[in-house]
Automatic annotation (TrEMBL):
Its main location: Golgi. Belongs to the glycosyltransferase 37 family. The keyword Thylakoid does not apply. GO terms for cellular component: Golgi cisterna membrane. It comes from the Eukaryota. It is found in: Golgi apparatus, Golgi stack membrane. It is an enzyme of class 2 (transferase). The keyword Cell wall biogenesis/degradation applies. GO terms for biological process: cell wall biogenesis; cell wall organization; xyloglucan biosynthetic process. This is Fucosyltransferase. Its EC number is 2.4.1.-. The lineage of its organism: Eukaryota, Viridiplantae, Streptophyta, Embryophyta, Tracheophyta. May be involved in cell wall biosynthesis. One of its GO terms (molecular function) is galactoside 2-alpha-L-fucosyltransferase activity.
Amino acid sequence: MVSLRDAAWTAESVWPLKTPSTRQESNVDKVLGGLLVPGFDERTCHSRYSSVFYRKNVTRLPSPHLIKRLRKQEALQRRCGPGTEAYRAATARLQYRHRVGVNDTTNSACKYVVLVPYRGLGNRMLAVASAFLYAMLTDRVLLLDRATSLSDLFCEPFPGTTWLLPRRFPIKNLQNLTGEVKESYRNLVQNNSAASVSGLGYVFVDLDHTCTYHDKLFYCDDERQFLYRAPWLVMRTDGYFVPALFLNPAHQEELDRMFPRKDAVFYLLAHYLFHPTNKVWGLVTRFYNSYMRNSDEKLGIQVRVFDGDTPFKHILDQILACTSQERLIPEVVTQEPIMLPPPSTTGARSKAVLMTGLSSWYYENIRWKYLQSATVTGEVVSVYQPSHEEHEFSGKTTHDMKALAEMCLLGMTDAIVTSGWSTFGYVGHGLGGLTPWVMFKPENLTTPDPPCRRARSMEPCMHGPPFYDCRAGHGADTGKLVPHVRHCEDMSWGLKLVHPE
């Protein structure tokens, strides 16, 4: 089995590798239509400007207004970020907030959102993208809690500053904050205590996918009711909440200007924010160049099982049924010919199938199927799986590095099949700008019928959406309020962005 598990962590991991494209660098838009800024030291982060060579094309280009807002956010991050006088003053006021009067006008000079992402790497990446968009909409500086492995996985996205929260931050044990603390948005809403925000110094927003009704009223906040008084916002979330921002009337006009195409929000945010470190990028490029580069077609299959670590035959049957019915992989012949034809002088078409998952059992069965029998089309199908950890070890740096490498590799395929409910899958197809075939979550250990369905867009699903109409002020089916926010294919109550045709 081809594996990243025993990959050597050597200097070769960070050395520039030959790109897989024959195109000249001068003809390639390495800044993705202005999404990125030039000028970063390419030696410290190879992926920032070279990842474009590993994709066939840029699926969506940024709008002029999005580019303008990104440059504005970068300037804000530099002006108010760690190491600046503005940051030192803001943290001093936070530490001694009871000595600062509520009429202190300097509180509004710089405002911050401190993100506390958690759970699996896919969850954390979706949370970062969501919080970043919220920060842009509300003119806040985004800072990430250091408690997870994100600093080992990604290069800094902002020029001239850091997005990592300094270790000597006045609020301790951020990972242990809950919606029960007195500073929580939930309590402020329940007690109608907007006036006390200035005295608190910060507001804690709990956006866990199981958060309460009052927590979710945050999605309707227009920064005039409570939050404009809070220079510091601490946000804890484990998923993608961008669809809820599109339901807030206060943000709709700006979001429409930033994202004329509603189905490319995560794709653009992810390619701005997430640049794997050289060590991770070395894993990605070496695997790609060794096993995927020369194939005519590349198919990604992402397997996530929620019923335990034991392999299940009904999941294998579902994978095979989906890829067969959607004609993603050719069938094999049921009876071998008496005499094999001579090798073609032009060569048969080749298809590389990249499988990811905690178990190797599904990979081994599918690989053996295409080893023991020829395909009916004559195509040569090769099946690979970079790693199989058997169990999830979220937050462990080495585990997360391998997970990120596999997400990047999935994004380099031409088509992709993902498991429903899986944030790992959302990120994989989102990075590639690929609209996936989504395999439905099995019930009662039975293969679903149909086994999969083509998604309406490449956007991730929001698992814990609000059920409240901000404009009308009452409960509602939020999947029917605007044409570009609809329910997900894999989770009937979830929300996702689509581009209305």
